[in-house]
Amino acid sequence: MTTRTTLTTASGIPVPDNQNSVTAGPRGPVLLQDFHLIEKLQHFNRERTPERVVHAKGSAAYGTFTVTEDITRYTRAKLFEQVGKQTSVLLRFSTVGGEKGSADTERDPRGFAVKFYTEEGNWDVAGNNTPVFFIKDPSKFPDFIHTQKRHPQTNLKSPTMMWDFWSLSPEALHQITTLFSDRGTPDGYRFMHGFGSHTFSFINADNERFWVKFHFRSMQGIKNLSVADAVRLAGEDPDYAQRDLFNAIEAQDFPKWRLCVQVMPEVEAETWSRKTGWNPFDITKVWPYKDYPLIEVGVLELNRNPQNYFAEVEQAAFSPANVVPGIGFSPDKMLQGRIFAYHDAHLYRVGTNYQQLPVNRPQCPYHTYQRDGSMRFDGNFGAAPNYEPNSIVSTPKQAPQYKEPPLKISGDADRYDHAEGDDPYTQAGNLFRLMKADEQDRLTSNIAGAMRSVPMSIVQRQLAHFAKADPRYGAAIAAKLGVQLAGAL
């Protein structure tokens, strides 16, 4: 009897259904999260024949992830199926806003992107060193990034653009508080945490869904640079973080992170939201540990440097669309946008067949009907059929056993105001209040320093947001700017 070959995505992830798109109800519309559909269409569009826009400056290393605790009650993903199981990984660190030649020590979030080369395809956790983000709707992302880049006339960084945008986007306050704290200038890449940031799904063997957040906890501890040291190193050694990571691994001082998860049963999302007033799928919010404590999963160790930077780091491509059976998506709007945008960026920047490059290629068998396109170098599947459905038994076929449980959706299709009913202040204020007095002093000094050249109308609008998070927060920044805090918004 002939063994059936499983149809997969180009990342080696099994395809449960190749005939029907994911839709909201039987009559549609089609959902953007149907990555298999998007991948097929995008690849087809590019079958006839640049520095990253964000995260351009980066460093990476290979390593191993080892399972230390049993979480099979939450997920059927095979990489977690038994304690002691190991999976090869690639972890790329980066700054976000700077160009490829910028300094590693600039105040900026840090990218923390992990590629797990699993037996069911590549799983990418394309996260940051912060658990939250500046915005919650993907339509705002290009505008936000423009404010972090260069002014269209002067070609200089513009504090006015940044604070103008943030002052009109109060949901950014939580991330601003993190960015301008001590953790905004980490001491290299080894001494910081990483986060998946978004809410994802776990799906277990009984087809039950759990909501999940991923945390990578540095086993080296947390170390940050002072403002003076960060500025000094930017001039003396702009590649400080890359040098530190490479040299540590060469010296066999292998950095490690403990992977932990927060898990929320699917049925609790609504009740938790009603209790707290927060949307569990909002990337500008965290789930408090007292509600959902960290559960240890395993240890990630980096133990091998790349041999060629361009081939293995510059061409490395990560996408949150790459999830394996047992891990899925959520209604998080920013996640839904990134599912499309990251893969599309790689198609443009690296090329139509970027997933075949050795650093991106799955380490398990993969079978697609994608053909041709520029720089095809894997044999192009020879004489095999390039269409499906077909009646040839030995060709890849969809695998219904990998189908996920339905993702519950409610409400009419519309453009909903993401600010309506939102509370952007409580969690930012809680973070401020968690800080010791000296940490609060450095935070408010950093913010005041960044706002000195900003027009007063923008300063006052932003100060009102700080004051709503905590009156002491706003007052301290106002005092350091030498201005009177105006009335509430």
UniProtKB/TrEMBL annotation:
Q: Which InterPro entries match?
A: Catalase, Catalase_3, Catalase_AS, Catalase_clade1/3, Catalase_core, Catalase_haem_BS, Catalase_immune_responsive, Catalase_sf
- Cofactors (names): heme
How does it associate, per the subunit comment? Homodimer.
Q: Which GO terms describe its molecular function?
A: catalase activity; heme binding; metal ion binding
Give me the ranges of the annotated region Disordered: 1-24
Q: Which GO terms describe its cellular component?
A: cytoplasm
Q: Which family does it belong to?
A: Belongs to the catalase family.
What keywords sit in the KW lines?
Answer: Heme, Hydrogen peroxide, Iron, Metal-binding, Oxidoreductase, Peroxidase
- The gene for this chain is katE
Q: Where does heme bind?
A: Y342
Q: Which Gene3D superfamilies match?
A: Catalase core domain (2.40.180.10)
What Pfam families is this protein classified in? Answer: Catalase, Catalase-rel
Q: What is this protein called?
A: Catalase
For this protein, the record's PANTHER family field holds: CATALASE
* Entry keyword Ribosomal protein: no
Q: What's this protein's function?
A: Decomposes hydrogen peroxide into water and oxygen; serves to protect cells from the toxic effects of hydrogen peroxide.
Q: What is its EC number?
A: 1.11.1.6
